[in-house]
Each structure stands twice: as C-alpha cells, then as structure tokens.
Amino acid sequence: MHPDATDAIVAQWNRERPDLDASPMLVIARLFRLTDAVDQRLRPLFAAADLGNGDFDVLAALRRSGAPYTLSAGELSRAVLVTTGAITKRVDRLEARGLVGRTVAENDSRGRLVTLTAEGVALTDDLMAAHLDNQRRLLAGLSAQEQERLAALLRRLASSLGHG
C-alpha cells in the first residue's frame, strides 16, 4: 500500500505530539474524504435528471416501499432520515415536476400521503439502475470478499454508534 494524505497527517501528529495516539484519524479522516469523493461521483447522475440533493432519496423510498408507492410524510422522514420539514420541501419540488402526488389520508384528514406517479416510477427505475452501476464502479478496486468485509465492518461501526 502506498501512503496517502491521511498517513502523512497522522505521521505529522505522531512527530509533533508523540504523547497522543492519532491512529483514529486513519479511519475517521478517510471516512470523511471518501464520503466527499463518493458524493462528487454519484451526484452528477441526479443533477442531470434535474433532481436536487435528497430528491432521489424520496423517490427511492417511495419506490422500494412497493405498490402503490405511497408513504406519509412521517414515514418518508424515517425512511430517508431527515426532518418532516425537509421532506415537505423535497416533495414540493417533486410534485411540481409531476413525479409525485399528494392525497389526503383516508383515516386522518389532516394527514397527507405522497405517491409516486407513473413518471416518477419510470424515472426512479432508470436512475436506480444507473446509480447501482455507479456504485459498482466505485467499489471495483475491492474484491467481492473485501466489499463484504468492509460492509460488515461499517455495519458494526454504525451499530456501535447507535445507527444500526
């Protein structure tokens, strides 16, 4: 393995503050750098489809919920891990594009349900296939076994932080 920028930073801290163990940076700093790098490589697909940050998350949550592809704002909020206020803004944008529709919940006239339109289903299906292809390309530097091991380690880390 070739040393990277994170190795250099940790080496500098080890030199300057040998009393500190800077080794956690070898993981955390790389996670941050990878998050940015992955985001920069995945975002263009959604930008080309004129989707704002997080819009695809709403479409995908609705699509994977199964027919009739309908969720409440609260369910969407939990599915994409953002506030209901953020969901409202995203749904407003998607509704203006004809990708989702809103209806009143039968059991609660105050509640609104969000449903994918036929156009929303088609776009989501197309984008999901391309999105998975992008993810496969990003992981191509790891073998299938390495990907499985990394996924397991990340799951374990997320669980230890209460985000399982």
Your description of this structure?
With 164 residues, the protein is mainly alpha-helical. It has a domain at 51-164: Winged helix-like DNA-binding domain superfamily/Winged helix DNA-binding domain (Arc Repressor Mutant, subunit A, Orthogonal Bundle), CATH 1.10.10. It has helices spanning 5-16, 25-48, 55-64, 73-80, 84-96, 118-138, 144-160; strands at 70-72, 100-105, 108-116. The two termini are 31 Å apart.
The oligomerization state is: single chain
CATH topology of the domain at 51-164: Arc Repressor Mutant, subunit A
What is the number of E strands? 3
- The CATH superfamily of the domain at 51-164 bears the name Winged helix-like DNA-binding domain superfamily/Winged helix DNA-binding domain
- What integer is the average pLDDT? 92
Query: What is the structural class?
Result: mainly alpha
Distance between the termini: 31 Å
DSSP helical segment count = 7
Binned strand content = 5-15%
- Largest sheet at a glance? 3 strands, antiparallel
CATH architecture of the domain at 51-164: Orthogonal Bundle
Query: Unreliable runs, pLDDT <50, ≥5 residues?
Result: none
Helix content: 55-70%
Question: Quick one: overall form?
Answer: elongated
Rg (C-alpha, Å): 20 Å
Order of helices and strands: HHHEHHEEHH
* The top level CATH class name of the domain at 51-164: Mainly Alpha
